[in-house]
Amino acid sequence: MTEYIEFDENERDCLQELMNISYGSATAAIADIINKEATLSIPNIQTVNTKQFKEYLKEKLGNQVDYFITNQLISGSFCGETMFVIDRKSTENLALEFDLEGEELKDDDELKDVILEISNIITSTTLSKLAGLIDSSISFSPPQIEIVRDSNSFYRSYINEYSHIIIISTDIIFQEQNIRGELLILSKDNATIYLKEALNKILEEF
Questions:
Q1: What are phi and psi of 175, to 5 degrees?
Q2: Would you tell me the crossing angle of helices 9-34 and 108-133 to the nearest 10 degrees?
Q3: Where residue 180 falls among pLDDT bands split at 50, 70, 90?
Q4: Predicted structure pTM score
Q5: What is the CATH number of domain 9-205?
Q6: Angle (CA) 8 75 30, round 5°
């Protein structure tokens, strides 16, 4: 079995700071679009295996409500996948900021269009900023979206993709509008090794 690629305390602190900067850029971009102020939680960094990732998703999606989930593949020296998770109520509140109203707020296709646009901005802004900070070059696939309630059916597609997973997550909160979403970055082993080396290079410069 492949051993975990762990981060030591200095590497974790450095990555957390880089993610603060990267997520901050994405939040500012979204706030400019809907002209509302947003806050970020401190980025949470976890190293898990596939079983633990399943438990993470089960807890995340365990409230018996609909979630809109987008995923987007990352290619390049830092490769993996992003997931943006937002519940239906937050989605509807976000759609109001895009001037949807009435029956449009019950139309899943209309809501999906809003989340795809927001997710694409958050992902591309966050990852592009992070790639610049770690001197990496990356590209993105078009985002995909689905509505899920059962974590088991959603989890299946991830079983064979990742042996170990670095979860980097943060809540993006628009308090007054009652909007809360979470961005997850799933990193493959080779990308994690690249990231670890990039973090140590940054630490050596300070």
A1: -60, -50
A2: 130
A3: confident
A4: 0.84
A5: 3.40.1550.10
A6: 80
Cβ within 8 Å of residue 177, ≥6 positions away: 34, 36, 93, 94, 96, 97
Between CA 63 and CA 60 the distance in angstroms is 8
Q: What is the pLDDT of residue 155?
A: 59
User: How far apart, in whole angstroms, are the C-alpha atoms of residue 189 and residue 166?
Assistant: 9
User: Angle 189-41-113 (CA atoms, 0-180°, nearest 5)?
Assistant: 80
* 105 token code pair: 């707020």
Q: Tell me, what amino acid is at 7?
A: F
Residue 85: DSSP 8-state: E
Query: What residue type is assigned to position 139 of the chain?
Result: S
Say which residue, 102 or 53, is predicted with more confidence: 102
Say yes or no to pLDDT of 135 above 70. Answer: yes
**What SS3 state is found at 160?**
coil
Tell me the residue type at 75. S
Q: How much is the pLDDT for 1? A: 45
The helix-helix angle for 9-34 and 189-204 (nearest 10°) equals 100
Question: Could you say which DSSP state residue 35 is in?
Answer: T
Distance of CA 56 to the CA centre of its chain: 14
Mean pLDDT value of segment 2-27? 84
- The residue assigned the tokens 């997973």 is 165
Rounded Cα gap, residues 90 and 179, in angstroms: 5
DSSP one-letter code for 135:
T
**More confidently predicted of 43 and 68:** 68
For residues 66-74, give the mean pLDDT: 90
